[in-house]
Automatic annotation (TrEMBL):
This is Peptidase S51. Keywords: Hydrolase, Protease, Serine protease. InterPro entries: Class_I_gatase-like (IPR029062), Peptidase_S51 (IPR005320). Belongs to the peptidase S51 family. GO terms for molecular function: serine-type peptidase activity. CDD domains: GAT1_cyanophycinase. Transmembrane segments: none annotated. PROSITE patterns: PROKAR_LIPOPROTEIN (PS51257). It comes from Cochleicola gelatinilyticus. GO terms for biological process: proteolysis. Gene3D superfamilies: 3.40.50.880. It holds the Pfam family Peptidase_S51.
Amino acid sequence: MTVIKLTFRILKALSVFLLLISVISCQKSESKSNTTKSHSIGPKNGALMIGGGGMTDEMWQVFYDLAGKKSAKLVVIPTAFDENSINYDPEFKILERQFKARGFDDIQFMHTRDTLVADSDEFIQPLKSATAVWLTGGRQHRTADTYVNTLTHAELNKVLERGGIIGGHSAGASIQGSYLARGGRDLNGSYRIISNPEIGFGFVTNSAFDQHHLERNRHYDMFDLLKIRPELLGVGIDQNTAVLVQGNEFEVIGDKYVAIYDGTFWSNYFNEIDTLKSGENKFYFLKNGDKYNLKERRVQRNKFLKPKTITSAEQKEYLGTYLFEKSKVFWNNIVIDNDTLKFQVVRRNIVRDPIPIYAYEKDLFYDTDAEFWFHFKRDSLGNIIGFDKKNHQFIGGLNQKFNKVVE
């Protein structure tokens, strides 16, 4: 009897142990799955221009350059238009003139409402040689209803694989995300970002792009979507503004702002990302030239430059305390901490942790965790008398604000 009881206890303990292992394994698997969902991945090759509505000359120039300039082969897909617009310009002559005015010579149009046509080899022929595709504004669900998961959709991905660019604004922006953010107005006058259908082209995974963002006061609508789809990265793009996606990074281009909904808050005021404060409805803005890492879901800092090694004697040469504003709100210190030259901000009685800065060349330093370049100034005798902080630096004729140096 004792042996039976002992055996039973052993089997029971073993069962509990195996169950515990199973639970831990599931938790790890779920955790891994959740981690994967928290990433957004851009196209391996090519580029995306995702615009909020309207285009600046700079945005058009970038699209034209990446399309191949005079050798560009452009395909325009106007399926988001309503029937009145299509009937007004059935051969798309008016639309064609707009692209010719931007420098494009080789232009073809693809339009159908029939999914079977969109899924045919004959229909997709213009995409076979395209270097660029433009998705017009209108209603994104019209584009999704016709093309998602067809041969047309697959061929669009091949345009990117060949190194081409796909662009669009308004409806042509939302369709490029994995979730088809609606951005429409209900009968009661409020906007609804939750869509039917829900699936976009997914050129950027786990993403939702909203447009006309600030102009139409839609900067709080994204939270309605993220409550039910928390794995998504929300990006709200305003008029005359776009994000240029290349790989897992995008750069803001244009006159206005891009709102980021990634569960954190960032401000260049302190040059740091806040993930510690609790609270809902947190978002922040990026402006022209700012960059964002989609995979890491954080503002992209200037971390690509290789620092120049300076001697301890040279480090000491840059030490000093400099008054940066006459109001004495800020003091800026250069200190040596653990054999590294660092910049420290003192705001009234608040002393911030020193930030490492690295030499790029003589009198020119940069901060890998912020957009600042430090330009040290010397007097006529060559003595260092202070420095300026700038958020850009021209290297090889290129503005290196946040940018990776082109080797």
